[in-house]
What we know:
Helix content is 22%, strand content 33%. It is α+β, with helices and mostly antiparallel strands. It has one domain (39-146): CATH 2.40.50.1020. The chain has a five-stranded antiparallel sheet. A three-stranded antiparallel sheet has the order 8-9-10. Strand 8 and strand 9 (120-124) form a beta hairpin. It is globular, with a radius of gyration of 18 Å.
Amino acid sequence: MKVNIDIDEKHTEPSITIKASEWSEELEEITAIIKRKNRQRLFGIESDQTVLLDPNQIDYVYAEKRRVFACMSNRHVEIRMKLYEVADVLAPYDFMRFSKSVIGNLNQIERFELSFNGNLCVYFHSGNKEYITRKYVTPIKDRLAMGGKSNDR
């Protein structure tokens, strides 16, 4: 791989361009490293205590009655942020929108099941399940086919 770095005062902000003939694991790793630099911490409220949440353990995040919760195995921890803000924070961790009110972790998906109305039922490694509405099925399938990572469980 060839790396070119152009340092010049005329550049107002860093810009990265990668030229390749096809997508590869190496490119996936590079983009993951670049995205990791600007990650924020995610905090939740559980039993009147603030807890630090590990995005890799979250199955999905959902909004219900104007509140946002992270679902991890059998725990539902409230997050005091808007759903779109949580989506921005979790994007580098391979989270995608499942519906208008749900963001899911692609790395925690175990299997899919087609529903009669065109939605997909997603089963997570923890045993939780959630639905992907028709609008979001194709982008998720494309992302997984393109190389969305898995935890090799």
